[in-house]
CHAT domain protein
Amino acid sequence: METSDIIKEMMEKNIQSLNHALSQTADGHPSIPLLLACLEKAHHRRFVRLNELEDLEMEIKYKTMTLTMTPDNDPGLSELLSGLAWAHGERFQRLGDRDDIEKAIDYIHISVELTTDDDPAMILRLANLGAYHDIRFQNLGEVTDLEDAIRYQSCALASTPEGHPKMPSILTSLVVFLRHRFEHLDELKDLEDAIKYLSRALVLTPDGHPDLLNILVELGAFYSHRFERQVELSDVENAIKHQSHALTLTPDGDPGLPTRLITLGMSHFRRFEYLGERNDMDSAMEYQYCALALTPDGDPDMPSRLTNLGMFHISRFKRLGDLEDLENAMKHTLFALSLASNGYPGLPAIFSNLGVFHFCRFKRLGALEDLENAIEYESRALALAPDGHRGIPNTLVNLANSHRYRFMQYGELNDLELTMSYESRALALTPDDHPDALKVQSNHSGTHLSYYIHTGDNTHLRHSLNFFRSASKSLSGTPRNRFSIAQTWANTASTHHPDSCIEAYQTAIDLLPQFIWLGATTNQRYEDLSMTEALAVNAAYAAIRSSDYSLALEWLEQARCVVWSQSLMLRSPLNMLRSIHPHLATRLQAVADQLHSAASDSREPQTLTSDSMTTEQVAQKHRRLAKEYNDLLTQIRELPGFDDFLRPMKAAGLLQAARTGPVVVINCHKDNCDALLIFPGVETVAHVPLPNFSAEKAQEARRTLESSLRCKGIRDRGVR
């Protein structure tokens, strides 16, 4: 006979013997409470081993009978009540009878009241009281239960000494309750607390522990949620770190593997949107395709995974312009649509994405049929989305875009009116501090501009410029998006309201170091710089038109040489800072040296050792150093006398370049060429219009100069 069968038989005989003894015992006999206690414990042990509901029913029956015979001052009463609460909680989980969860809460509440603070059992009883309130919340939806769950679990945590074996499980349970409240109330503090407690649990969980994988998965998810809310690079970096670790712990064949691949891919995608580095997009696509390959036909998650893949392809199309990506986005999303049943909750997103893809194809190929299809799909998405659906603002923006472009094609004012209406609804649904607010405000600026061009009403021009200003100066959203909006603002103001364009150009140039970020690779920074070639010329031309020649000179130097200036800044001497604030100088120098070394190492082949960092770890370290460097600069610039510490040189400093003779800077704008002149000993910048000069002539002069410099062995810019 198998050991398990022997144990089962012994349990049965024990229960039979106890039942027989109870049946032979007269009512009121003093041994009855002991027999009942033995019976409920015997049924409890068998329930835990065999998981049969009948044993749970008998445990509750005998515990309840014992309770009726137990005096209020019995020292074992609190333990009995705790056990009875547990049994009712278990039965509720199986049968869903509300009476069970009510009794579970009542019994454990009394048990806690009877338990002294120094009793070791207090921790578990408080934790169970919190758990039962959370269970009742999940079934009845009363927020007060969720508040009580968090309160009692927090008390359990406060009662748990450091090093207690239950500490990790108490922390993770509290995190679960915080997650439920975050999902219900969308309060950022719950995210903050969840990350704090789960990070503590992670430190306490050793490698190889069965709970480690779930902690990493949850922590990655919380960081990802917080990134969506606050758009802090460190959050998506941490999400990728923990999700990557979780993936390494997930064996092949694990049912959770596809989901972990998808979440890691999504985090890389979000970082791509923030930093614009192609490696992240490639990783996102790779993980998504791996997840798709592991998804069997008929899997209910197949439509959402295909939808994500379509979204990744369209993002890469917008970045690289390869039509194959656009076609793949269409293909995968149409496949998702074919698999989605009526009532599928992801249908609004599928229709909205298809609208975006048709709109992108219209902009690329110009087929009006695509524009009509875009409007049709977006309209269906809007009609299907229930009130409060998180995708409604985005769908409204997309629909507005399509109508704006149809107005541009046909000139029908109705399309422009619909654009304004949809965008106004999107604005009303989007909080000012939401990352998407920038996109909505920027688009609304464009609509007001279209109204101004169509009607000549200056009110719309004023609204357009104000929305551009608000979006580009907002603290929400990524620096890349804010810089792009600032450039559009500057171009719009320069064309339609030249008197106001100086502020717009200043905003764009101030954002330039964040767009061409020190934390990006050198190649990425030069690639980003190529996207801003016209900024310096246009900004300088605007300053020249305003007769502010010193500002024009500053902007030319600052905007055209940002990468060079960043590299030079890392090597700048810190003598003045070191004499007054030596600790800050030492720290800044150490970080600068590491950043400079990282930039140099990126151009050299590297040998590998057993403890070499992965490419991802190296990149994250570089970005952390860049953030620390910028934070230190901010701290130093708040000190008295250091307002302009390592900032781009002002005109007064640039004037010192003319030591032995005049310096001439030529700005070649499409509308006009101008020369800015600096003379030794002169404290102003002179201006000479060059009506007969052109960009072509400037290029020819440059080639001649470069040839002359090469002949003299002078190739690079720098101090000699």
